[in-house]
Specification:
Helix 3 crosses helix 12 and helix 4 crosses helix 7. The longest helix has 28 residues, at 299-326. 54% of the residues lie in helices and 8% in strands. The chain is built from 13 helices and 5 strands. By secondary structure, it is an alpha/beta fold. It has 2 domains: 3-180 and 298-326, Rossmann fold; 204-292, Tyrosyl-Transfer RNA Synthetase (Orthogonal Bundle), CATH 1.10.240.10. It binds tryptophanyl-5'AMP. The site of tryptophanyl-5'AMP (TYM) has 25 residues, from strand 1, helix 1 and helix 7.
């Protein structure tokens, strides 16, 4: 079975950047790749590389599981699971650490950013985070990994490690390919459009959460930072705020940016922002109502159990294969 694999960290509520950069893409890819099985997981082992409140983490894991499905993923050809329920992820991370160089990890820009922002001690796990991620992907022989642009460097490392293992031990892993969405691979902050929209930004006005109520969504978009020029054109350098809103509208409506520029050639910023707010609200409304029923539904647990069982079987086989190739344990 060919796999498409991706994960999201359960850290804070999902924002529009994560939705457009990843989940919306997964939904589309289910049609683009009708032969593939989708393995999507909640990356809770990644989340604890930074200290978290235990009750908050548990709540977010469940919320994320319900949101994945509420966003329109079809349950056939999909295994949804929680990373920590599959011990093979931790096992594989150790095995792959033996094939990863310190220098490679030191070059990871996301580690440098996160470490810089941290007030207390930076954990070793934050440093080795990309190896855990490589394991998440290689355990399942993922052919494609749909992610936003910020994960590109991690995926390159995954490919390098896979090739290294294959060249030392023979054919162990499929070398995965990156799949970023054409539009929406990097949604920017609403208050500082030079920065990525992020769940860790202390300024709540910088993002829209998928479960935000309509009036708040509208308020956030209407007060998004723009510029003093009046034209609605895509110019990332000089008009990052308007360009970001154009990208969001294009990703939400599937109308190309060029066509949107023509459509709004005579409009003012207020009219344009209202159209963006309408598109966000139209997208979020059905997601929010599906979410409200899914979060209470015991079927959600049954689905997560089935996802875990499938993932565990595939993952255990891969760990056993690598253990064997490395000469670990006894020969069987
Ligand atoms: P995470 O949880 O930070 O983000 C989840 C996904 O959302 C994308 N994303 C964005 N895309 C566009 N614009 C944004 N502003 C934006 N913010 C987030 C991310 O690129 C990502 O695709 N390390 C990963 C989780 C992970 C993973 C994996 C992913 C762990 N193991 C294996 C794929 C395969 C992360 O922290 O994503």
């Amino acid at each position: 079975m060919k796999h498409i694999v991706s994960g999201i960290q359960p850290t804070g509520s999902l924002n529009l950047g994560t939705y457009l950069g990843s989940i919306r893409n997964f939904v589309k890819l289910q049609d683009t790749y009708p032969e593939h099985h989708f393995m999507l997981f909640i990356a809770d082992l990644h989340a604890i590389t930074i200290p978290r409140d235990r009750l908050e983490l548990r709540k977010t894991i469940r919320e994320l599981a319900a949101l994945y499905l509420a966003c329109g993923l079809r349950q056939e050809r999909l295994s949804l699971f929680i990373q920590s329920e599959i011990p093979a992820h931790s096992q594989m991370a150790h095995l792959l650490q033996c094939f990863t160089y310190m220098g490679e990890l030191e070059r990871m820009t996301q580690f440098k950013d996160k470490a810089r922002r941290q007030e207390t001690g930076v954990s070793a796990a934050l440093f080795t985070y990309p190896v855990l991620m490589a394991g998440d992907i290689l355990l399942y022989d993922a052919e494609y990994v749909p992610v936003g642009e910020d994960q590109t460097q991690h995926l390159e490392l995954t490919r390098d490690v896979a090739e290294r293992v294959n060249s030392r031990l023979g054919d162990v892993f499929t070398v995965p390919k990156l799949l970023t969405p054409k539009v929406g691979a990097r949604i920017m902050s609403l208050t500082e459009p030079a920065q990525k929209m992020s769940k860790s930004d202390p300024n709540e006005k910088s993002r829209i959460l998928l479960l935000d109520p309509e009036p708040l969504v509208r308020k956030r978009i209407m007060s998004a930072v723009t510029d003093s020029d009046t034209r609605i054109i895509y110019d990332k350098e000089n008009k990052p705020g308007i360009s970001n809103l154009l990208v969001m509208l294009s990703a939400l409506t599937d109308v190309p940016i060029k066509a949107l520029e023509e459509q709004f050639a005579q409009a003012n910023y207020g009219t344009f922002k209202k159209a963006v707010a309408d598109a966000v609200v139209d997208t979020l409304k059905p997601i929010q109502s599906r979410y409200q029923s899914l979060i209470k539904d015991p079927e959600l647990d049954a689905f997560l159990d089935a996802g875990r069982d499938y993932a565990e079987k595939v993952a255990m086989r891969k760990v056993a294969k690598l253990n064997h190739k490395l000469g670990l344990g006894r020969k069987r």
